[in-house]
Write the structure tokens for this entry.
Amino acid sequence: MERQTFTAVYPHRMRFSQYDGAHFLVYINEAPAQYKPDEESEAVPGFAYTGDQSDGGTLIECDALDRDKLINGIIRTRYLQTEEDAIKTHQIQVLQSLAGLEAGEMSEEKAADYAQEWAEFQAFRQAAIEVVTGWLEEE
């Protein structure tokens, strides 16, 4: 079942806040947007956020203001831990196959699929790192 998402536009960049003892509310999936508070106002440059909360934020599991925990919480918005483990296992299988250590041969198509999923995971992980680093540098 797909989670419902919401988009909200703000005149400034949003940050994160502690929601409760086990969660933080973060604003990810940032995109440039035009902010217009009402019908009479002129639109100004702003920022749009899309998330699972009605204000465009995303609730992540994170129990403390900690760089690694924030990054992990963002990663979990797209990948369950078991999915991440499978992607890492596939990458190990590719490397073992290339080194001749894998018991059976891996098809080029399968190796390409595994390389693609690894690249997508790494790109998302790097984006999460950059977002959190930016937040913490502003502290």
Q: What stands out?
A: The chain has three helices and six strands. The chain has two domains: 1-65, 66-139. Strands lie at 6-10, 17-20, 23-26, 31-35, 44-51, 58-61.
